[in-house]
UniProtKB/TrEMBL annotation:
This is Tryptophan synthase alpha chain. Pathway: Amino-acid biosynthesis; L-tryptophan biosynthesis; L-tryptophan from chorismate: step 5/5. One of its GO terms (molecular function) is tryptophan synthase activity. Keywords: Amino-acid biosynthesis, Aromatic amino acid biosynthesis, Lyase, Tryptophan biosynthesis. It comes from the Bacteria. It catalyses: (1S,2R)-1-C-(indol-3-yl)glycerol 3-phosphate + L-serine = D-glyceraldehyde 3-phosphate + L-tryptophan + H2O. The active site is at E44, E55. Tetramer of two alpha and two beta chains.
Length: 260
């Protein structure tokens, strides 16, 4: 198992997301370290992109703020190098196919390996079209985190069988963003996944309350939260650290309460 498996060693993982460079790269570094101190087990770092089609308004606006602040892919790699001087917490990029191919897949994944990244999530890369990226990622020891959506249906087993690091179970149809209710039968999807693989399954999209985290923690191996953390950063900017700490700590504790 890759280093990403360490995120699940306590039984349930809390996975936090933030956009690199929002509001500034120095603050992203501070907020990554804050999340780890608060109990996060794995951190997703969003590479800002002008057309993040899987994201709702909250993360779209974070991407725009980061791009307007001048954040570029090489800056994000330098951020990772800085983080790696302080911690070995598992780190995963979230980005899109366009930036990877513009950078060059082999060059991109070579830099991931060089800087100490562990995995990548590419929401607009279909399972059937993962070949070129998967080969480049494998050559450099980077896990491609597969996403399984409620619409995956008869493709769930195929996607799960090639899963690396962890499987990202999408809780709801649509884009990212906080939701008051998760209506998808997640247990049914997770049961199918567990039938074909031992790779951990974590649930994201829409989770933002401790009640939701506890419920998801009862059926999945991990809880993923993005928009709620990005909202805190949007609200408090340079002073978001203590608010991020309190929120992540509460969500991690709730996730752990899901252990039966």
């Amino acid at each position: 198992m890759s280093k990403i498996g360490n995120a699940f060693k306590d039984g349930k993982a809390f996975i936090g997301f933030l956009t690199a460079g929002d509001p500034l790269l120095d603050k992203t570094y501070e907020y990554i370290m804050t999340m780890e101190k608060a109990g996060a087990d794995l951190i997703e770092i969003g590479i800002p992109f002008s057309d993040p089609i899987a994201e709702g308004v909250v993360i779209q606006e974070a991407d725009l703020r980061a791009l307007e602040a001048g954040t570029r892919i090489d800056d994000v790699f330098e951020l990772v190098k800085k983080v790696r001087k302080e911690t070995q917490i598992p780190l995963v990029f979230l980005t899109y196919l366009n930036p990877v191919f513009h950078y060059g897949p082999d060059r991109f994944f070579a830099r991931c390996e060089e800087t100490g990244m562990d995995g990548i999530i590419i929401p607009d890369m279909p399972y059937e079209e993962r070949g070129e990226c998967a080969a480049a990622a494998k050559a450099h020891g980077i896990d491609i985190i597969s996403m399984i959506a409620p619409t995956s249906k008869d493709r769930i087993e195929k996607i799960a069988k090639v899963g690396e690091g962890f499987l990202y179970i999408v809780s709801s149809l649509g884009v990212t963003g906080t939701r008051t209710e998760i209506k998808t039968d997640l247990k049914e999807i997770i049961d199918v996944v567990k039938h074909v693989t031992n790779v951990p399954a974590a649930v994201g999209f829409g989770i933002n309350t401790t009640e939701q985290a506890e419920k998801i923690g009862g059926i999945a191996d991990g809880v993923i939260v993005g928009s709620a953390i990005v909202k805190i950063i949007a609200k408090y900017g340079d002073d978001a650290a203590p608010h991020i700490y309190d929120y992540v700590k509460a969500m991690k504790e709730a996730t752990m309460r899901g252990i039966q």
